[in-house]
Amino acid sequence: MEMIDLEAPDLHQERLQRVVSLFRASGARRVLDLGCGSGGLLQYLLRDAQFERVVGLEISGELLAQAKLRLEDLPSVRAGRLELVCGSYTDRHPALIGFEAAAMVETIEHVPPEALSRVERAVFAGLRPQLLVMTTPNHEYNPLYDMGPGEFRDPDHKFEWDRARFREWAQGVARRNGYQVRFSGVGEMDAHLGQPTQVASFTLASGPA
């Protein structure tokens, strides 16, 4: 998702660059973008020769069409390294099992809370990438955007977690599915409120450190 109006214009690019950096350091060659939107992360991945197969999954046909238009002239796309799939990561996708790395960038907060268990089953128990990098807003930071209590950064957000709640959820998912998880952030640090973007890096316990 790329509908970020309140934040600094370069914050989203920082997120994408963080994901690419983590993917590159893991040695991954086959990578997934779950909730790829109009292809911002895909564009970065396709410009890096390390990533031999890049798949974007997106439920919105309109956004997927935008991604196709945005990326179709890249040499890596013409070479067949990109696949775009219309679908939801709350559903099973057997063809996408076994990828080395996956990203969920600013997308989990668009999922209704009652569907989070489906995400866990489909992604962490089903797809089981060796590395999964997830970013989501840090709700505690919102007052620095002149936002009131309970106000979200995007009208389509179903929730926004504070740091403690995100850690609790992510640690539970990791524990139940054989992952280890590390937390970090992206954006300007506030001594009390943290950073605007939260990052969780999930690594399969049997996979690369």
Write the layout of secondary structure elements.
Layout: H1 11-26, E1 30-34, H2 40-46, E2 53-58, H3 61-71, H4 75-78, E3 82-86, E4 101-105, H5 116-127, E5 131-137, H6 163-177, E6 179-186, E7 197-204
Parallel strand pairs: 1-2, 1-4, 2-3, 4-5
Antiparallel strand pairs: 5-7, 6-7
Helix pairs in contact: 1-2
Descriptive notes:
- The protein is of the alpha/beta class and 209 residues long.
- The chain has 6 helices and 7 strands, in the order αβαβααββαβαββ.
- Strands 3-2-1-4-5-7-6 form a 7-stranded mixed beta sheet, sandwiched between helices.
- The chain starts with 10 loop residues before the first helix and ends in a 5-residue tail after the last strand.
Strand order of the largest sheet: 3-2-1-4-5-7-6
Helix fraction, binned, reads: 25-40%
Secondary-structure arrangement, i.e. CATH architecture: 3-Layer(aba) Sandwich
The CATH topology corresponds to Rossmann fold
Provide the gyration radius in Å.
Answer: 16 Å
- State the order of secondary-structure elements, H for helix, E for strand: HEHEHHEEHEHEE
The profile of the biggest β sheet is:
7 strands, mixed
- Put simply, the count of helices is 6
Instruction: State the shape.
Output: globular
Mean pLDDT over the residues: 94
Distance between the termini: 28 Å
Structural class: alpha/beta
Stretches with pLDDT under 50, minimum 5 residues: none
Strand proportion: 15-25%
Text of the CATH class? Alpha Beta
